[in-house]
Specification:
Elements (H helix, E strand, L loop, with lengths): L11 H17 L5 E3 L7 H4 L4 E9 L1 H6 L5 E8 L2 E9 L4 E6 L3 E6 L9 H6 L2 E3 L7 E7 L5 H11 L3 E7 L3 H8 L4 E4 L3 E2 H13 L3 E4 L14 E2 L2 E4 L2
Parallel strand pairs: 1-2, 8-9
Antiparallel strand pairs: 2-3, 3-4, 4-5, 5-6, 6-7, 10-14, 11-13, 12-14
Helix pairs in contact: 6-7
Enzyme class: hydrolase
InterPro entries: CysQ, CysQ/Inositol_MonoPase, Inositol_monoP_metal-BS, Inositol_monophosphatase-like, Inositol_monophosphatase_CS
Protein name: 3'(2'),5'-bisphosphate nucleotidase CysQ
Length: about 240
């Protein structure tokens, strides 16, 4: 199996998570294809006509996992016609589960491993609807703990000309979750990511009322491009 050059260093946890997720998805949704960071590289000519597929990152935040700071996640998104229509993010160390679906809303479930979930409605009843934090006079910006760029620093500098700005650092897709919760108003990402890094987070943010827009044209972010490497983007609470 040919490995992609953009893939970060693998850990045994990546492999085990990949195997468990793919097995579960294939058992439940045998006809829906899966595109995953740790999966086999699928040529664009084969996947370009997919109307629906799962986009999976079995361990997002490899650096956070290696550093043992708890800020790594498992991300699964369902993509339909190029856009995420469902996203789930689980932070195993925090035992916190985020999920979102446009039209349904976004939710956060703490102590997720202890929850008794028989169906979707039971899951929603035990969860907190997002956002949960109200607006204040301070602009809260969440940035990558591992990948700060000069462009991101410039974005923060521009905001500071007119507002009081608080900068929050977080790892993995938890940055999207902080925007969905209302803890942060902005998540600027002016550094490389891959499609599996962002799809689940985008679904959760959008279902909570936020946006994720491409830097170059301020249009909604979309997926299953020929080059799976993402361009710059801005996630905004409202």
């Amino acid at each position: 199996m040919k490995r992609k050059r953009t893939t970060p260093p693998l850990t045994e946890a990546d492999r085990r998570s990949q195997q468990m997720i793919v097995k579960g998805l294939r058992e439940a949704y045998s006809k829906v294809p899966i595109l995953s960071e740790e999966g086999e590289e699928i040529p664009y000519v084969k996947r370009k006509n997919w109307s629906m597929f799962f986009l999976v990152d079995p361990l997002d935040g490899t650096k956070e996992f290696i550093r043992r700071n708890g800020e790594f996640t498992v991300n699964i998104a369902l993509i339909e016609a190029g856009y995420p229509v469902m996203g789930v993010i689980y932070a195993p160390v925090l035992d916190t589960f985020y999920f979102g679906k446009p039209g349904l809303g976004s939710f956060k479930l703490e102590e997720a491993s202890r929850a008794a979930v028989a169906d979707d409605q039971a899951l929603i009843r035990q969860s907190t609807r997002l956002p949960v934090v109200g607006s204040d006079d301070i602009i809260h910006v969440v940035t990558s703990r591992s990948h700060m760029s000069k462009e991101t620093e410039a974005f923060i500098g521009e905001l500071r000309r007119d507002y009081e700005v608080d900068v929050i650092s977080a790892g993995s897709s938890l940055k999207f979750c902080l925007v969905a919760e209302g803890v942060a108003g902005y998540y600027p990402r002016y550094a490389p990511t891959m499609e599996w890094d962002t799809a689940a987070g985008q679904a959760i943010v959008e279902a909570a009322g936020g946006t994720m827009l491409r830097y170059e044209d301020h249009e909604r972010f979309y997926y299953n491009r020929e080059n799976l490497k993402n361009g710059w983007f801005l996630v905004k609470r409202l």
